[in-house]
Fold these 2 entries.
Entry 1:
Amino acid sequence: MTEIVRMTAIEKHFPGVHALRAARFDLHHGEVHALMGENGAGKSTLMKILSGIYAPDSGSIQVAGAEVSIADPRAAQALGIGIIHQELALMPDLTVAQNIFIGREPRNRWGILDEAQINKDAEAIFATMKVRIDPTAEVRRLTIARQQMVEIAKALSFRSRILIMDEPTAALNENETEELFTIIRRLKSEGVAIVYISHKMNEIRRISDRVTVMRDGAYVGTVGAADTTIETIISMMVGRELDQTVAAIPDLTGAPVALAVRGLRHGRMVRDVSFELRQGEILGFAGLMGAGRTEVARVIFGADPREAGEIEVHGTARDIRSPQDAVAAGIGYLSEDRKQFGLALGIDVRGNIALPSLDRFSDRFLRVDEAGLAQAAARQIQSLGIRTPSDRQEVRLLSGGNQQKVVIAKWLLRDCDILIFDEPTRGIDVGAKAEIYRLLQTLAEAGKAIIVISSELPEILRVSHRIAVMCEGRLTGILPGGPQTSQHEIMRLATRRESEPEEATA
């Protein structure tokens, strides 16, 4: 294969962070080249330099054998480089076609937008992708998978020959992932070169030709995907052995019930859900996308209205109608979208950790005890091992794993003893995942009652003491965690329809 991109000796600094250290990367025509590494390894930074979002401090970039300077995203687009970010950047109130051609819309001789032409042009792109999407549909009405296809179509509308995909399957289910893989293989067959950034090991072996690993901003090595093992890639990523053992499941028979939910209802997504969570227990919630797992968590936390049912905290009925009520009851919720709902990205680490507890660090005149707050934040940073130059670092500059720890820190500072973790390891690397697993175990051993919602069945089996399985808004069964249960048993309950008989719960 001929080389289309070569990046050599790329350096990049941010305030307090040496993000890239003589980093290098090459890409061939018509290949899928996976770029891997722990959060903070420099993958996204390197690709943002290739796509013109960041300027390198030094180093060289060649595209199709010619040295280039990529000053901004428009310069990258002119070179045929497109990027699809993990957080999609579409405008929900515009149509599919308007999103694809925004800023480049054809107009008639009177200067009026030619809607018919952009719809026709969008249809032509979807035809080459062999995807059926209505170009006149509002983007907000599409599934995430369909929106991803629109992003790809937008990149192809610039005649992109180099396509960068950053965690493209993070929010997709298995069927949607297969659909995306079909598109990727078709683009590859047409000569498009694809950079594929992902933390999902099972995807890398299936979709990529080569794998390049980065660590601490530097190049580690490149291997053929078919010629290596997942264990080798993990070792390259983390530079150490990871503890893969499953913790022993404690006997919590006599432990106090921390949270009791009875007959919980909210529309069609939460239908007569009942369960108990004991002190020191990790209760996993499994199910297919749309099963109602997140909706149950949001109703318990007061983020969505409870239409019926009862919630008891430590044996006392609580009328939780808002997140403030939930926090007052000692319940903390870590949303699946930490950037939108869990963090204030524009403020520093200290401020984020303190947010739910500001009333404890201010007097009746709203004067904040900065010294006390700094000490409390420092304790959380140390105990959770949050990697940050200081507590004054903007949280948006931290890696995904460290951002997740900041969310955990804010609820621990508030001293919540019931914690709901919704997709706690989404978008973070294997090393950070192992740290989160250890932290969950430590919190449970300290007496916290924990709910973990995850779409990854191996994760659910690894961390849970018991596993609650949902299907179409109903709790279809509760299984023991660990080696006593298989992924097959979970999927059997996750696909059981309403008309089937109820399972006995453990």
Entry 2:
Amino acid sequence: MIRFEHVSKSYHIRKFEKLVFADLNFTIEKGDSIGICGANGAGKSTLMRLIAGVEQPTSGRVIRSMTTSWPIGYSNVFQTSLTGADNARFIARIYDRPEQELLDFVEDFAQLGAYLHQPVQTYSAGMGARLAFGISLAIEFDCYLVDEVTAAGDERFGKRSRDALLSRRDNATLIMISHDPATLLSYCRRGAVLYGGALVHYDTIEEASAVHHQLQSRGM
């Protein structure tokens, strides 16, 4: 279970304060698969970082009884001066996993070839996403957080990613951000819309996507 209790988040930007969320209250249960819709700048990635514990709320609290992955996607979660392999070994030590076993999984799954042994700062955005995806899937989390990562790579990698996510969804919690309603429909059983500092939950992805589309068509 992950519970948000009266969570607000704001950032101080130069001479003004940007409020991202105000008084969020919701619970993510074990086994949930939730697709989150929202316009660019609505705070989707910030929400994922709060769920993961990468960032802390300005007020309120987030209660967790599930382990969560870091947000898997195009935002960089690595020490970029290190190689992909070195980052994998470091994370294996953090989570007390056999280093070589985790590295072998990542090498097979991410298919980065020689780039696995090059600094992450030389990677494209898609390559970084594939590395993050591979390392995350090598570790068994209770909750996986996914940000558009299924678009990374070629068709073969896309299929491998979809199969892996569906397998994890059947045995864990899945929270996904995507601008593509079809992607959310493929993985998630219910939806939510992030708008105006509030997160509104819906029983289906179709409902959430319809509301999001209406807001977008009004320029909101």
